[in-house]
Structure prediction request, 403 residues.
Amino acid sequence: MIFLKLAYKSLLERKGSIGLTIMAISLSVMLLLGVEQVRHEIKENFNRTVSGIDLIVGTRTGQTNLLLYSVFRIGATTNNISWEHYEHFNSLDSVKWTIPISLGDSHRGYRVIGTSSQYFEHFSYGNQQHLEFQAGKPFNTNFEVVLGADVAKTLGYQVGQSIILSHGIAKINIQQHSEHPFTISGILKPTGTPVDQTVHASLAGIEAIHHKPNRTMTMNPNNPPTFKPTSITAFMIGLESKLATFKVQREINQYTGEPLTAILPGVALSELWQMLGVFEKTLKAIGVLVLVTSTLGLSAMLLTTIHSRKNEIALLRAVGAPASFLFLLIQTEALLIALVSAAFGWILISGLLYFAQPFLLDLFSLNIQANTLRTENLLLVCGVVGMTVLTTTIPSIVIYKPD
Prediction:
């Protein structure tokens, strides 16, 4: 107890320099926890890009490639799935619902997805969060589209405006479907997923703009479609029971009608994140550098103050304080500084993330949770305190030497 009281009074005597040191270490702790929280949340958001979907089905390919073009809108498939075969699996007793996906078009660099109303009813992300509208409603005619939050914000679109879709995925594409403009029926709320950067149209509308001259169809947007698409790019499956997952997956992979691949989204996401391990390691390296810098700064501060504390040290020696007492005194001071700095830094990052959360989601589509009370963060703070005590061993030894 005497160490704490003496260390506390000693720190008060040097409150100016100690205050600046606490501020510097607190900012370092805040940055360290911030980097770790962002790394953790980015990984969680990545793994929760799609949830509540049991299987994703595409033509025969690797599971990473299928995940990339069906969920992240990256790349493209060389073949499509026959609509007839899609309906075969859609009609299975074990299948509760399906979401068809048709890719291949774009609007000013943003990918267009042709899908059905099932998409807005069953697609979910994060912790089983369903899509919500910030304006308008789902499409209910051939020539209506629903925009992701980023598309609407970046291009300045509002519900009721008309847009033209283009063939292909290039940002500048002269092959536009200008004869069939689409009306924006709704705009989705931000999700922090590729949904934000997607234009959603009906399968009927996508089929209409690609119709062949010898195909007869009703082009009045107020009439329901009188035709079916011939093929789709992929489809997502929700099953009646999770127990049927591997059975249905095996049935799809062994289907003789055409070569198909069914993947488990969670497994594919984990595999893809492992391929992006360099990104995670970089963020961890930044955190370690922050930790080393902050603790070395404290050690340097204590070393520079030893000279100015010669009278204090001499007085303690004069009243009979052993060298071990002075050693423990410096360590106690360092421990107090580390604890106060860690607590203050934790409060700062928690408050900053709490207020920045809506802006990060709106500006960067990053859904960063403000709750930093995790075991990993607690271990990091303990590491900061332990590293601080370790690096202050040098000034403690210096003061331990007899004068």
Observations:
- The longest strand covers residues 95-107.
- Residues 2-46+276-400 form one domain.
- The CA atoms of residues 149 and 190 lie 5 Å apart.
- The chain is about 50% helix and 15% strand.
